[in-house]
Design goal:
The complex is a heterodimer. By secondary structure, chain A is of the alpha/beta class. In chain A, 29% of the residues lie in helices and 22% in strands. In chain A, helix 4 crosses helix 5, helix 4 packs parallel to helix 7 and helix 7 runs parallel beside helix 8. The longest helix of chain A is centred in the middle third of the chain and has 18 residues. Chain B has 17 helices and 12 strands. In chain B, helix 3 runs antiparallel to helix 4, helix 10 packs parallel to helix 12 and helix 11 packs across helix 12. By secondary structure, chain B is an alpha/beta fold. In chain B, the strands form 2 sheets. Chain B has an 8-stranded mixed sheet, sandwiched between helices. The chains are: A alpha/beta, B alpha/beta. The interface between A and B is large, with 52 and 51 residues.
Chain lengths: 352, 526
């Protein structure tokens, strides 16, 4: 049996894995430049889960794809942005500087940072067996023989709770059910023992019962492999169950950031509050929902000032629609970008 | 009206006619008169049935006139006309059998259908009481329903055929997507339908609307003192079933019954369509990008057959658009100019424009963002209050279903395992599956640490549902009896139905509700 948890995971909890400073991503389109991510900062620590919540168009997927340089060719990452990855061997690298097709990013992709996607059927190739695709990932990053790679792969499948793994290993993706496919996807991502796992809506396409299984599995594996997770979802319920910290994004900007308890129990930003109120709760069955008024502005018509002012019930005319709110520090762990908290100190680093 | 199917059938009929003529000539030399009584009755039967006599009668009359006009003897003329009738009938029946054979796949099944169907099916129809079957009166089907019942679904079954990969493409076991579902929907009520993917929730919605033809069961819609029969097991008389059962091989029986059923129901369904509508899941996929929003909303009104003048049409479209909070000025635009939430409102306006009594909402808010979702849910509730429309609300998100529904039905593998008023279902579930579903809801409340009950594995295949209670393979409380005995859906409390052998013995946990829901947990000023 090959040892698949080598030395590099035996690192301490709480050590920074990734630091993102002022990440800006724009897309060149026929209609002009669309600013999808407009200055995002966050850090991810080993053994911790950062949840990113936001509606469609908030830039949550784009910012994580930028971390792996997986954006389409018309995307431009601002050269001033910083995405500093602390690699397992102790060196650091700024992902912004890497070429999206270069050798260096390819050694990071899948090895240091792994990713699982929403739709497991779409992210597996239908013409290769599951085993083939796991082995490919392992052999791209490790010098092991085919036989050893198979051993690692089968072992990984067993760890993610797939029964009869050596038989499943030789099956095609269509032969597996949705939940099984997502498990196999997780096995593929973890087979190289990454320090950071990006999970982009991993349970959105699954049923609640299967979702509960997958969430529990991810929590167990995080403990076992001691990795950092960035968990993207639009579902605050799911996020609040898995995340240690939550960043709420709106139109390409993190508007509120704090521990899960901070955000769920004392939300500060009007958007976060409205979002929490809009979710139907089982506790108060037929109470009328309070929707967030208005629609999300289109990507071409980004409002000036605070992007949320068009829908904000507490917007201060002449201020919110003109100036960009900096991040105010509410507590040690909690920052919010909203002028309602102007009396609080501005958090260093500028943005939330 | 004439599609490729019909053209193909006509072509085949022609070929058969030519070759049939040669057989007929040979038979003439030997003693073909023997065939006349048998096929004559077939012809008579076909004459009774609407579309065929329309074809056959003018041909017969024309041909007869032609023959007599050219001085042919009367007796011979009649014989020739009957002969042509026979050939045409055979051709039509063969064309019909080709349609049937197509359902079984191509290749050998095609040949089997071609030979077996005319030989087996024709004599059955000829000797059974064919006229009785075809003139059965829909209005005489009585349903014992209360005045407030809008929709009744009784033992609804929808099976999809599967085919083996062998040369003959032989028939495999059916996928039993919906397998015996019974419920009634009251006027102005919302019934939620929840279940995992593969439990048949979408199929139920679609088969009630007859977008998917049900395999069996009865569905009736009661609108304005009128009863529309949308699916009918009752409609086919037992005498006909007996004959079919005796003579046809098992794999042909459902087909024979279904075709008869669909012929009979077509008119009924067309009339009922304006009273029932569907709101789709994806507002980006369900609006035609080449039609203006006005045309999209007006289309159901135009196709419903109501003759409206342009100004009346405009009035109704504008009216409904306003109710759905759409800007009337924007109706001339195309769908791409609207956001997701607005598009979904267009979809709702389109569904409501014919004043339907019954709407199927198939995952209608699942594709929307949370902030928009709340708005659409509120709109649906408002419109229900205003128009008194009933919803069949299909969703996988339990908290959304709980919010909008008066009653909720939980589906598992094509069957209802629990049906109860929302409050009762969520607070005190009576079926272990419901309990497991509840426990798996991701709750935002951080202190309410509810241990989710992990269900082993996934939903079994509907081609081979487990024996006994279908849930026994995943049930945490499974006992020996569950593997063999099928539980019945029984009323365990007023209006609360559950199908579990141990309803009385199990104490199941519902959703924890702090202090009986007196105060909302979030008191945030927005």
């Amino acid at each position: 049996m090959v040892e698949i948890v080598p030395e590099k995971t035996k690192k301490q909890l709480g050590e920074t894995v990734l630091q993102v400073n002022n990440l800006r991503v724009a897309f060149k389109t026929d209609e002009g430049l669309v600013q999808a991510v407009a200055g995002v900062d966050f850090t991810v620590q080993r053994g911790q889960t950062l949840g990113i919540v936001g509606e469609s168009g908030s830039g949550k997927s784009v910012s994580t794809k930028a971390l792996m340089q997986l954006l389409p060719p018309n995307a431009v990452i601002d050269p001033e942005s910083q995405m500093i990855l602390h690699k397992a061997d102790g060196t650091t690298v700024d992902i912004t500087k890497l070429k999206s097709t270069g050798r260096e990013i390819r050694s990071i992709r899948g090895d240091e940072i792994a990713m699982i996607f929403q739709e497991p059927m779409a992210s597996f190739s239908p013409v290769y067996t599951i085993g083939n695709q796991i082995t490919e990932a392992i052999r791209a990053h490790k010098k092991v023989s085919r036989k050893q790679a198979r051993e690692i792969g089968v072992d990984m499948l067993a760890r993610v709770g797939i029964s009869n793994p050596s038989q499943r290993f030789d099956q095609y993706p269509f032969e597996l059910s949705g939940g099984m496919r997502q498990r196999a996807m997780i096995a593929t991502a973890l087979s190289t023992n990454p320090s950071l796992l990006i999970a982009d809506e991993p349970t959105t396409a699954l049923d609640v019962t299967i979702q509960a299984q997958i969430l529990r599995l991810m929590a167990d594996l995080q403990e076992e492999f001691n990795m950092a997770i960035i968990f993207i979802s639009h579902d605050l319920g799911v996020i609040s169950q898995v995340a240690d910290e939550i960043a709420v994004m709106y139109l390409g900007r993190v508007i509120e950031h704090g521990t899960t308890r901070d955000l769920i129990e004392t939300p500060k930003h009007p958007y976060t509050q409205a979002l929490l109120n809009a979710i139907p709760r089982i506790e108060n069955l037929h109470a009328r929902l309070q929707p967030v008024g208005g629609d999300i502005p289109g990507p071409m018509s980004r409002p000036p000032g605070c992007a949320f002012h068009t829908r904000c019930p507490q917007a201060i005319a002449g201020h919110c629609n003109v100036d960009l709110p900096p991040a105010y520090r509410i507590s040690e762990t909690h920052t919010v970008s909203c002028f309602l908290y102007e009396d609080q100190p501005i958090a260093e680093g500028g943005d939330a | 009206m004439i599609g490729t199917n019909e053209l193909g059938a006509l072509l085949v009929s022609f070929i058969v006619l030519v070759s049939g003529w040669r057989i007929f000539q040979k038979a003439n030399k030997t003693g073909w008169h023997m065939l006349v009584p048998i096929y004559g009755s077939v012809v008579w039967m076909d004459v009774v049935q609407f579309p065929r006599w329309l074809v056959l009668l003018p041909i017969g009359a024309g041909l007869g006139g032609l023959l007599l006009g050219t001085g042919v003897e009367l007796a011979l003329g009649v014989q020739i006309v009957i002969g042509v009738f026979i050939l045409l009938t055979i051709a039509l029946q063969i064309a019909h059998s080709i349609f049937l054979a197509r359902a079984f796949g191509k290749g050998a099944a095609f040949a089997v259908g071609l030979i077996v169907l005319p030989v087996v099916f024709l004599p059955i129809l000829a000797f059974s009481n064919a006229k009785y079957i075809y003139s059965f009166d829909l209005d005489s089907v009585e349903y014992a329903v209360g005045p407030d019942v809008l929709l009744r679904v009784d033992d609804l079954r929808v099976y999809f055929p599967t085919f083996n990969r062998d040369m003959l493409r032989s028939r495999g076991p059916d996928v039993r997507a919906v397998d015996g579902v019974t419920f009634a929907l009251k006027r102005g009520e919302t019934l939620g339908l929840v279940g995992e993917s593969g439990s048949g929730k979408t199929t139920i919605g679609r088969s009630i609307l007859n977008a998917i033809a049900p395999t069996g069961g009865d569905v009736s819609l009661h609108v304005d003192d009128q009863t529309y029969t949308l699916a009918i097991d009752k409609l086919i008389p037992q005498s006909f079933r007996d004959v079919v059962d005796r003579v046809l091989p098992a794999f042909l029986r459902p087909l024979a019954l279904q075709n008869t059923r669909r012929d009979l129901l077509r008119r009924e369904i067309d009339q009922a369509r304006q009273h029932m509508q569907l709101i789709f899941q994806d507002p980006y996929a369900s609006l035609n990008p080449r039609m203006t929003v006005y045309d999209i909303i007006a289309e159901p009104l135009i196709t419903s057959g109501e003759r409206l003048s342009d100004s009346e049409l405009r009035k109704r479209v504008n009216n409904i658009a306003q109710r759905c909070k759409l800007n009337v000025e924007h109706l001339r635009r195309f769908p791409h100019a609207f956001s997701g939430g607005q598009r979904q409102r267009i979809g709702i306006a389109r569904a409501l424009v014919t004043n339907p009594q019954f709407i199927v909402c198939d995952e209608s808010v699942s594709a929307l963002d949370v902030s928009i979702q709340a708005e659409i849910l509120n709109l649906l509730a408002d419109l229900q209050k205003e128009f008194g429309v009933a919803y069949l609300f299909i969703a996988h998100d339990l908290s959304v279903v709980a919010h909008i529904s008066d009653r909720v039905a939980v589906l598992y593998l094509g069957q209802i395992v629990e049906l109860a008023p929302t409050q009762a279902l969520f607070l005190a579930p009576k079926h272990p599956y419901t309990e497991a579903l509840m426990s798996a809801i991701p709750e935002i409340d951080l202190d309410n640490d509810m241990e989710s009950i992990e269900l082993g594995g996934e939903i079994p295949s509907p081609t081979a549902p487990p024996s006994g209670c279908r849930f026994h393979t995943r049930c945490p409380y499974v006992q020996e009896r569950c593997r063999t005995d099928v539980p019945q859906l029984l009323e365990v409390a007023p209006g609360h139905f559950a199908s579990c052998h141990f309803v009385d013995e199990l104490t199941l946990k519902g959703v924890n509700i702090p202090a009986a829901g007196t105060d909302t947990p979030e008191e945030v000023a927005v």
